[in-house]
Amino acid sequence: MSSIVVVGAGIIGVTIAYELQRRGLAVTLVDRDAPGKGASYGNMASVAVTEFMPASRQGIWAQMPKWLLDPEGPVRIRPAYMPKLVPWFLRFLAASRPSKLRELEAAGAVLCQRVYEDFDALLKQTGLTQMLTAEGCLSLYTDEAEFKADREHIDILERFGFRYEIIGGNAIRDLEPALTTKIGKAVLFPDNRSISDPYKLVTALFERFEALGGRIVQGDVAGFEQSEAGVSAIRLADGRRVVAEKMVLAAGAFTARLSALLREHIPLETERGYHTQIVEPGISMRHSIIWPARAFMVTPTAGGIRVGGTVEMAGLEAPPDYRRAKILVKRAREALPELNAERATEWMGHRPALPDTVPVMGPSAKRRNVWYATGHGHLGLTYAATTGRLMADLITGIKPPVDMKPYRVDRF
User: Fold this and answer.
1) Lower CB density within 10 Å: C or N end of the chain?
2) Nearest to residue 264, comparing CAs of 373, 362, 365, 368?
3) How do the domains of the chain map onto residue ranges?
């Protein structure tokens, strides 16, 4: 039986490990934390199949100066971290060329078009179908001007055949009575469904993985033992070794540190995201909501209501700035005037962000027995089942159902 080590026990790593174990490999998960305790713990619980657009598109560039100058804006760069971001931003700029944008849109759309085929299969195999809700997501606009500002997004969805429905007036409140009457138009994305608790999904998948014979080793990865054949073992900070015939690096925003030890540099940054989990919100919601002009999202999940969003570029080491979470709650109350946030917890996590918004999935260009699955950005949960399927195909020698060239590690 072939043995393989998957580094990273978030939703991506656990799903890959489960799929490989299911296919007959002996899999060991390695992570410094318990499964699901990283970015997967606090994501917005959204299977967001309509959100694959590159962040470098023109509509974002047009708003960036205003956002950066606004202390409460949706994007913040800590000044001390700015010099380290220059190479990443140059690649981000390169990804904004019109011809390049079309390539990136297609690469994201290909993944999103097969999300439910893979997600439904995964949930059925594991007996977790009840964790996927039936309701979609509402995108909110106060007026026609806000709607037109987001029209680029909808035009891209039309081009790739994703479903949406434009709703106006009282029909919006019929769907979500708690919404303010200031919202004059909304777009329903029926296929942007939610997970009832994203952390519990990771832990439940991990339990299925263990039941199949998979194991986990908790510890910090400090280095790798290498030979001409590739990586032969992982060295942990406490001196332990984990032998590996094959290895997948799926450690989210921390993957670049590990790939650098293999002299394979990935332009991976962390977009630090914040959420507030409200235990007794005083309102009920069926749909998740996003308000593009205010750049936040609200999702009913984890037994309450979760408010999240924002992008903070400050690296992996800087302490959280929970003022960002409070700003999001302030924005959410504009949409949901009766929202009660007295009983709430705040959280910050590291989204793994590549400058072209397209994940890395595939073999190393430098080590023959190493694969990468990282850089899923805001779509880790959305892409999880598809990533598990595609990576397992690659590793077991099966031709994947999609062209994997757009996701190669050496594309930059």
Assistant:
1) N
2) 365
3) 3-41+200-267+357-407, 46-80+131-196+269-353
Strand partners, 189: 137
Cβ–Cβ < 8 Å for 299, 387: no
E strand segments, 10-135 = 26-31, 46-47, 75-77
Residue 410 tokens read as 């050496």
Query: Are 403 and 281 a contacting pair, CB within 8 Å?
Result: no
Residue 166: count of CB within 10 angstroms of its CB = 13
pLDDT in tens, the chain (412 residues): 568 999 999 999 999 999 999 999 999 999 999 999 999 999 999 999 999 999 998 777 777 777 778 888 888 999 999 999 999 999 999 999 999 999 999 999 999 999 999 999 999 999 999 999 999 999 999 999 999 999 999 999 999 999 999 999 899 999 999 999 999 999 999 999 999 999 999 999 999 999 999 999 999 999 999 988 799 999 999 999 999 999 999 999 999 999 999 999 999 999 999 999 999 999 999 999 999 999 999 999 999 999 998 899 999 999 999 999 999 999 999 999 999 999 999 999 999 999 999 999 999 999 999 999 999 999 999 999 999 999 999 999 999 999 999 999 999 9
SS3 285: coil
What CATH architecture does domain 3-41+200-267+357-407 belong to? Answer: 3-Layer(bba) Sandwich (3.50)
- Show the tokens assigned to 409: 């590690």
Q: Which of 303, 257, 274, 216 is nearest to 35 (CA)?
A: 216
308: tokens are 């999240």
Amino acid at 102: R
Q: Which CATH superfamily is domain 46-80+131-196+269-353 in?
A: D-Amino Acid Oxidase, subunit A, domain 2 (3.30.9.10)
What whole-number distance in Å separates Cα of residue 77 and Cα of residue 315? 10
Which residues lie closer than 8 Å to 59 by C-beta, 6 or more apart?
Answer: 149, 150, 152, 153
Please tell me the distance from the alpha carbon of residue 266 to that of residue 355, in angstroms, as a whole number: 10
- The residue behind tokens 């540190």 is 257
The pTM of the full predicted model, rounded to 2 decimals, is: 0.97
